[in-house]
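From the pipeline queue, job 12 of 40. The input is one protein chain; the requested action is below.

Action: predict structure.
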Amino acid sequence: MNETTLQFKSFDQLSSGSRIAWRIAQVVVWLVGAAILFCLLFFPTLGVTLFWNILIPVAPLLLVLATGLWRNVCPLASTNLLPRHLGLSKRKKLSAAQQGKLNLTGVIALFAIVPLRHALLNRSGMATAVMIISAAVIATGLGLIYEWKSAWCSGLCPVHPVEKLYGGKVMMSLPNAHCSQCVNCSVPCPDSTPHINPKSSSKTIYHRLSGLLIIGGLPGFIWGWFHVADVYHAQSFYEFVSVYKMPLLGCLLSMTLYLILSKMTGPGFDRNLTNIFAAAGVSCYYWYRIPALLGFGLFGHDGMLVDLGNILPAWSISVITMAMAAFLFFWLVVRKETQVRWALRPPYGQKDGDQIGNLTA
């Protein structure tokens, strides 16, 4: 059965075994998230290790290969969509401008939160727990008001801009394990649009700014972030906020480079340029993160999971990081694009008695 046949197959149309399997997966991952949150509150050292040194390092590669899997089982997504599943949501639709503002706010939140790891979150289980709880409260509140994934999963969530940047060439389309019907809550729908990217929608200035910031700015932001050491005993407000200097400088430099290359190459090369910057961002992340996890980081034990410094030769880490970078550039830049999307679109639903399936998605 080809993808054209499958693309309108909804979660409700799956076999009972498949539906149960997806619900079990969502519950299990949600419980894992709850367990990590519990550790952050009551066993902070363990919680910080589980969250920042195990879960987060896996996430970028998962987004590159199977964004739809994460979208189906993300604990915050399940929390956000619970009011909709229970029939408690007011199901309001967002305008293009409102969704653009949420997208831009999500990018700004990403750039605001990540440097705080150096100043606070990497060493404070309580601070990380407060961050997660705050996100869950906001996600639930948005789910009570707005339709399906529009306000959080495809709007304000700080991870969503990275999903759109890294998830342009996923390896498979999965069933949409949340949406039972499509009501065009987000246009274009990131879940069901092939090779989605941060510039797929440019309806408003907010969409265009968020696309520019995440495509052009993220690679330099990541590079700058890895050139800042954790601050364990900040003596002044300036020392606390100094963790932003290198990431924001790197962001500015790579965004400037992106704008120059965009002008030089023209619109016809735009998609390729986006893929190159996506590969540069995720490759840069693993170029520095893998050594740090294994005890070969730039700043001693910052971000270390296990110290293999006395076991592995330094050249072996270089081989690993170069192999990862080569794979990511192949996957995101060289590999041919297909019509695979994150998730298969469910059937269009009815709203106020009118068929909405003819809207552009």
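Job complete. Residues 44-73 form the longest helix (30 residues).
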